[in-house]
Structure formats: structure tokens, C-alpha cells
Amino acid sequence: MDGYDKYAFEPFAVTVDLAVFTIRDGALHVLLVERGQEPYAGRWALPGGFVRPEESAETAARRELAEETGLQDVSGLHLEQLRTYSEPGRDPRMRVVSVAFTALLPDAPEAHGGSDAARARWTPYDAARNLAFDHDRILADAHERIGAKLEYTCLATRFCPPEFTLGELQQVYETVWGTTLDRPNFRRKVLATPGFVEAVPGGARLTGGRGKPAALYRAGPATTLHPPLLRPTSEGRTA
Amino acid sequence: MDGYDKYAFEPFAVTVDLAVFTIRDGALHVLLVERGQEPYAGRWALPGGFVRPEESAETAARRELAEETGLQDVSGLHLEQLRTYSEPGRDPRMRVVSVAFTALLPDAPEAHGGSDAARARWTPYDAARNLAFDHDRILADAHERIGAKLEYTCLATRFCPPEFTLGELQQVYETVWGTTLDRPNFRRKVLATPGFVEAVPGGARLTGGRGKPAALYRAGPATTLHPPLLRPTSEGRTA
DNA sequence: GCAAAAGTGTTATATGTACACCCATGG
DNA sequence: CCATGGGTGTACATATAACACTTTTGC
């Protein structure tokens, strides 16, 4: 921390990369952009870009998110630092240190392919392979992280529109975890956690065309779940 | 990600900062160094330094850890990325993006004040205030993180020597969380988690001078705790 | 014997799990 | 009237929390 010469070292570039998730047609999707230039021209990559001189990484990530999704109001969206990737060879051009973020979107706004990215597309998570740079790894880390956070935080509501049914909330868990959950137990668990969801007084909505209309809920003020809502098959993780 | 001119932007410096914890005399301690130069000359700070051109942040963190603690074998120690701090004004000299790490040491090796740091000292966590830069914040984040990780990982054994008693392991939890735990229940919980600890066949040790000698255990292969070992007073965190 | 620390046992309560069952709606 | 999805009830297993009690050591 005691070097004054700004150019004493080979400069580092600092970028942000975003793993932006949404749930569409009952499947987890991630936002990818197609690279227009070398390296990795034509390959898909996570959206991202350089941190500007007067920005923090968080500010840069939010700006990129707005640019790539074309959303008007990005201020309320959940953005969270994942980790920083700094392996010397991760970008063939120069030393690039990238701060990765995860973001969760309620529904999939089709408008994208904003400013600089050649093309942007929502891709099913399972099909998002062979990405540019070390983005396969970043994406896998991001998926792992949100899966874990669903267990002990109220993050799942970030995937839902402002008003949602408990069935939709359950689908979030089932989609991210790739499991099925018992509906009665899920319902009780969610309602027993104070501040997780709040009932919308008169609301009800048909979900699948058929069936009983479901009551509507809003996200509550709580941020953490106590006790946690554990994945069913989390036995093998002790070894 | 598409800029080729390495000097197009004002350069970023990339550093690592370390929050190195240990337990000493039943209290949580953190390793601090006294700054010899401006800015913040004479103030205490977290150890850290520049990432070198051919290093990853992890490599740099491990190198700094070895230098600051004077330990021979730093390879087995637990080092974990915390998050990256990138606010534009956090270093008055230039743009410094810092990747923060946490490290846990079994006991407190007194040998320190290694290479570049003016002085290094183990400081009780509660007395580590008014640090240089944004290190108060980093330290608080690190403490919060390790407290949370004790709940659902086997991290606590990293604070212990190779062979330890269950009483010592319990002290780790009590020290980091600032609570007391019921000994019989703690014991059952730990032993019921497969792979958390392994009994050392013939071992026993006197702990407090008096009392029954305690059986010795080693850290097991498990890394996560299922079900988790929750803090007692974690009620208020739902709101 | 007494204090201190380890270790065992027991019980009430809470929580998680696996179901069976009823309700409202569209076709 | 049946398929579909929402919602309720209930019995059982397991986990937690609180606390009494025994064991082994040093003084």
C-alpha cells in the first residue's frame, strides 16, 4: 500500500461480469451476449465491461445491467457481489481482474441487446456452456451461490413479480434447486417465517388456466430465513 | 471487454487486504500492522499489499500472510475471499481496488513484524477500531462472515491445533459468537455430524489444570454441517 | 472433600416429513 | 364430472433446548 508511482507496475484493468438469472417457462435462464471481437469472437459470454475511473464496481455492474437488459428502473433489482477472478491468464490481452456479480430478475424482459453488446439473449442455464474466458466457472459459481442463498435468505422473492402466488414462489425453489418440494409443507414454512411474504388483501389469480385461484402475496421486509429452508437432497454434502 | 489500449484508462492498482483471526486467551484477535508512511502513518491497518503482475489475488494473499506472520508453512491455512472493495475514494493516492481475504490461524505465533510492515501485532477484535482506509468496514464484514460460516461449515476446526478437545472447539464458537453454548448439546451435535471431528485413539489432555482429562479429536473430512449449528440468539435476524 | 472440567442421560417442545383429504375453477 | 392446481389436517420421526447427574482430575 506504499507505492506512489501510478505507473510503476504493469497496469491492471478492472472489469465487472454479471450472471443475470431469471425464470422463464419454468426453467432457469441466464443472460448472455455474443462477442463481436477477438478474443473469443462469436462466442457467448456473460455481460460485463470496464469499471470507469470514477465508478465503484457496484455502480459499474448496475450500469452494465441497465445497458444490457434495456430496463428502465434497475435500482430495485437485487445485485450482489459474487467474487473476484484474478488469475493472470484469464484474458489473453492483458491483466484483467474481474469483479463478478449476480443479479436476479423477476420476469424476462425481452428487450435487450442494448448498447455495445453484439447480441444479447436469455439462454437456458443448462445450455449455457463453452462461454468465453473463464465465464463457465463464474456462471457455475453464481448458480451454486444463489442455490445456497435460497436456503437461508428471502432471495427467492426477487425472482417473482411484485405480486405472486405461493405456487410461483415454490417454482422458484424447484427450478433453481432442480428438485420438487412438498406443497403443504412449503406453504407452512413460508407463512411461518415472519416477514417473508405478506398477503395481498383481496388478491387472487388463476395460475395454470385451470384450478382454484391462488391467493396473492408480496415480498415482506425480512431478508433472512430462520430456521432455513434446506434442500431435500443435501445429505451428501457432509462428506 | 473490448479495449486493447492498456493505457487508455487511468490505471487501477490491485491490492489484497487480509483479516487474519486467531483465538488467544479465550478472545478473538486479529493481526494488525502499524503503517509507517502516509497516508494514515502511525495508524493500524490490516496487513496487505500489491498484487504482483504474475500473481493471482489468492497467491498474493498467501504470500502476504506468510510475510506478515513469519510462518513457515502457510499452505495448509484456511484462506478465503471475502469481497472486493472498489469505492473510488478509498485510497487518497489513487484508484486502488482491494480484494479482501479472511484467514484463520490455530494459535497465535508471536513471530511477526516480518518484511515490509513497520510493526505487526495481535490485537483483540474489540480493540481493533479506527483503522486506516476502509479497514474498519472490511474487518467488520470479515467478522460477520466467519460468524455466519461457523453455523453451516466445519470452519471452526481451523482455529484449533491439529489435536483439540471438544471444549476447545466449543470455545471457538463461543468466542466468535460472543455467546455461551450448552456443553452436552454441543458435544452431541458435533459428534452426530459425520466427518466433522475424528477421535484420536489414545489421546487425552488436561485443559484447565484441573478437571477430567478430555478426549482429543482431529478435524474430519467434512466441510459443511447438516443440519447447521445455529447461533442461540439468531431470532431477531428475520426482520 | 471440594472445585473444576469432561462426559452421559432424560424429558418437553419444536420442527421437518409424508401423506390423505377437501376446495374452486375450466373444460 | 373430471382434471388441475390451491389449500387444510394429521400422524410420525427427528432435532433442539434445558437441566440433572456421574466421572476424573488437582489441590
Automatic annotation (TrEMBL), chains A, B:
Kindly state which keywords UniProt assigns to this record, in alphabetical order. Answer: Hydrolase
Q: Which Pfam families match?
A: NUDIX (PF00293), WHD_NrtR (PF21906)
TM spans, by residue?
none
Domain of life of the source? Bacteria
Does the record bear Metal-binding in its keywords?
A: no
Please report the stretch or stretches of sequence annotated as the Nudix hydrolase domain.
11-145
Any one GO MF term held by the record is: hydrolase activity
The record's comment on protein family reads: Belongs to the Nudix hydrolase family.
The record's annotation in PANTHER family points to: ADP-RIBOSE PYROPHOSPHATASE, SLR1690 PROTEIN
Quote the protein name from its UniProt record.
NUDIX hydrolase
Organism of this sequence: Streptomyces composti
